[in-house]
């Protein structure tokens, strides 16, 4: 990781930890840096994605592969899209395990590791999109921002449909509990619109 990227990751992690700039001591920054170093040794990121037609659209949501995603936010996001990408990514069960161990030993280190894992999963997804999805787009196509269940008005129940459509449990080990909590916890599901430039 280059210095600029490392500094941004540390800043993002401190933001997840709700640490104001005035409280960002050198000791705390070093704790976060060590947490990132430890994560690099244990994470086993996996991702699965697919490109699908949006079968039906309305101002209240979209239908993809028989699943209806009720959300005005998603409807607006995909207003210029005839297709979309679904994705599911995870850092793996070991990451969750090590966060719990760290939290029991030292609350600050556990908090730092948890925040760093959140940054790491987002960074992994962004890099994967740049390196593996965008190069495959046709001329004139572009991706919208990604939108995850639980944000805006997109219900967490949408996670279950995304996992089912992608067969993410089989391919990545990612699943969802009855209470709609993903396991491993450090996982992300999302919808990305595929639009065309005018």
Give structural notes.
With 198 residues, this protein is an alpha+beta fold. The protein has a single domain (3-196), classed as NADH Oxidase, CATH 3.40.109. Helix content is 46%, strand content 25%. It contains 7 helices and 9 strands, in the order H-H-E-E-E-E-H-E-H-H-E-H-H-E-E-E. A 4-stranded antiparallel sheet has the order 1-5-9-6. The protein has a 3-stranded antiparallel sheet with strand order 2-3-4. The protein has a two-stranded antiparallel ribbon with strand order 7-8. The termini are far apart.
Strand arrangement across the biggest beta sheet: 1-5-9-6
Gyration radius (Cα, Å) is 18 Å
What is the beta-strand fraction? 25-35%
CATH fold group: NADH Oxidase
Q: What integer is the average pLDDT?
A: 94
Please give the alpha-carbon distance between the first and last residues. Answer: 37 Å
Figure out the total of helices: 7
Estimated helix fraction = 40-55%
- Total tally of structural domains: 1
Class by alpha and beta content: alpha+beta
Oligomer: single chain
Tell me what the CATH architecture is: 3-Layer(aba) Sandwich
Count of strand segments = 9
Query: How would you sum up the major sheet?
Result: 4 strands, antiparallel
What is the CATH class designation?
Alpha Beta
């Amino acid at each position: 990781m280059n210095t600029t990227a490392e500094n941004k990751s540390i800043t993002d992690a401190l933001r997840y930890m709700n640490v104001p700039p005035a409280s960002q001591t050198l000791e705390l920054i070093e704790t976060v840096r060590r947490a990132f170093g430890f994560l690099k040794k244990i994470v086993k990121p996996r991702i699965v994605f697919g490109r699908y037609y949006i079968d039906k659209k309305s101002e209240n949501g979209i239908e993809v592969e028989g699943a209806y995603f009720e959300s005005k936010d998603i409807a607006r996001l995909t207003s210029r899209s005839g297709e979309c990408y679904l994705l599911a990514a995870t850092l793996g069960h070991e990451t969750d395990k090590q966060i719990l161990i760290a939290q029991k030993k030292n609350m600050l280190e556990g908090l730092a590791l948890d925040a760093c894992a959140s940054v790491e999963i987002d960074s992994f997804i962004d890099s994967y999109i740049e390196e593996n999805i965008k190069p495959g787009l046709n001329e004139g196509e572009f991706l919208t921002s990604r939108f995850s269940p639980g944000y805006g008005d997109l219900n967490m129940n949408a996670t279950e449909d995304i996992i089912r459509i992608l067969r993410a449990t089989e391919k990545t080990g990612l699943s969802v509990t009855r209470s709609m909590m993903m396991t491993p916890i450090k996982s992300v599901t999302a919808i990305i619109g595929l639009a065309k430039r005018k």
